[in-house]
Amino acid sequence: MPHTAPGLRAAETHAAIRAALFLVLVGMCAALHIWKVPPALPQLQVELGLSLVESGFLLSAVQLGGLFLGLPVALVAERIGLRRCVLAGLGILATASMLGAWLDSSLLVLLFRAAEGCGVLMVAMPIPALIRRLVPPDRLSRIMGLWGSYMPLGTVIILLGGSWVLSLGSWQLLWWLLAALTVGCLLLTLRLVPADAPAGAGRPRDSLLQLARTTLGSVNVWLIALIFGLYAGQWMAVIGFLPTIYAAQGVSGTTAGLLTAIVAGANAIGNLAAGRLLHRGAPGWHLLVAGLGTMILCAYAAFGAGLPASAQFAAVLVFSMVGGLVPATLFVLALTLAPTPQTTSTTIGWMQQCSSLGQFVGPPVVAWTVNRSGGDWQWTWTATAAFAAAGIVLAILIGLRAKPRASATR
């Protein structure tokens, strides 16, 4: 997918960058749907009679689409067009959110959460490749650092705004409002993002099977995808259960939402820092090891060390902030380590699929660990540390493979 032409007029360049920044907002809109459940979870548990483990599956059900369809959707997006894929995903998100609010049985809420997962995937998977197509190469690392923060920024918005909406009405109201917002994003995408090139234009296209084989035949693709899954699983589990942990400690819903939003928002700091460090030439695998290693130490401090509440909050805050080095680094590595330019979307699709696997498995594993310890959250860190330690091993392998050549990040 070609970069923006060097001779493009300044006005057109600004319009392209504006479109790329708007795509970050579209990603944040998709993130709102993922994270609308945590602030509503205490209300959903009461209304639908959910156990702790069932709540964990409700948190992770939105990952079912990505769990099975990450690479297939990427292959389809290569054929129908990246922009068309984003538009279809926004349509699915809006429809599923409306139906989930209207048909509010526990089974249907779970099913529509899975449908929302497909929509999130169709929105988030093509956007990095679209950004690469739009922006000049010398700005790519910085904008991808901003893209890496779409999830924590969306999380902050929904945890704060969602808690406020829930204090005024039911969870169904929140679902309806998000559906309306998503329709607005769809209309703006039609207006601001350039249309896909006509089918067959530009370059000869590989077959779908060949694209899949090339993508899955790359060791680097597997390494970055598995690291993303290991990172996402632990972050989703810790942040997703924070409102429930605070509620069990007697913290009010609005306060719990605020504290969780601060923790989630801190992740954006790490993402933005990673973008700047990568732009300056820092090796990506160094950032991965630093982020994951810090997450191990902070998870132990937050849950296993018996520290006072203020110190626990500080540890979770650093857990999320320094952990933010990981996703932005992985998105840039996905663009630079993709086997061919044509496999950029499929590389990110496979990375998203492994991320969804981690987010699907992470919350139930943490909930199971808590149940096995008699409902005590102090052993949470053992589950998250296992994810992070495995990610560190894989990051070191990336570094060993990169030694014979120049760093993959610029």
UniProtKB/TrEMBL annotation:
<feature type="transmembrane region" description="Helical">
    <location>
        <begin position="55"/>
        <end position="77"/>
    </location>
</feature>
<feature type="domain" description="Major facilitator superfamily (MFS) profile">
    <location>
        <begin position="19"/>
        <end position="403"/>
    </location>
</feature>
<feature type="transmembrane region" description="Helical">
    <location>
        <begin position="313"/>
        <end position="338"/>
    </location>
</feature>
<feature type="transmembrane region" description="Helical">
    <location>
        <begin position="15"/>
        <end position="35"/>
    </location>
</feature>
<feature type="transmembrane region" description="Helical">
    <location>
        <begin position="253"/>
        <end position="273"/>
    </location>
</feature>
<dbReference type="InterPro" id="IPR050189">
    <property type="entry name" value="MFS_Efflux_Transporters"/>
</dbReference>
<dbReference type="InterPro" id="IPR020846">
    <property type="entry name" value="MFS_dom"/>
</dbReference>
<feature type="transmembrane region" description="Helical">
    <location>
        <begin position="109"/>
        <end position="131"/>
    </location>
</feature>
<feature type="transmembrane region" description="Helical">
    <location>
        <begin position="214"/>
        <end position="233"/>
    </location>
</feature>
<feature type="transmembrane region" description="Helical">
    <location>
        <begin position="381"/>
        <end position="400"/>
    </location>
</feature>
<dbReference type="InterPro" id="IPR036259">
    <property type="entry name" value="MFS_trans_sf"/>
</dbReference>
<feature type="transmembrane region" description="Helical">
    <location>
        <begin position="173"/>
        <end position="193"/>
    </location>
</feature>
<feature type="transmembrane region" description="Helical">
    <location>
        <begin position="285"/>
        <end position="307"/>
    </location>
</feature>
<keyword id="KW-1133">Transmembrane helix</keyword>
<keyword id="KW-0472">Membrane</keyword>
<feature type="transmembrane region" description="Helical">
    <location>
        <begin position="84"/>
        <end position="103"/>
    </location>
</feature>
<dbReference type="GO" id="GO:0005886">
    <property type="term" value="C:plasma membrane"/>
</dbReference>
<feature type="transmembrane region" description="Helical">
    <location>
        <begin position="143"/>
        <end position="167"/>
    </location>
</feature>
<keyword id="KW-1003">Cell membrane</keyword>
<protein>
    <submittedName>
        <fullName>MFS transporter</fullName>
    </submittedName>
</protein>
<dbReference type="GO" id="GO:0022857">
    <property type="term" value="F:transmembrane transporter activity"/>
</dbReference>
<dbReference type="InterPro" id="IPR011701">
    <property type="entry name" value="MFS"/>
</dbReference>
<keyword id="KW-0812">Transmembrane</keyword>
<dbReference type="Pfam" id="PF07690">
    <property type="entry name" value="MFS_1"/>
</dbReference>
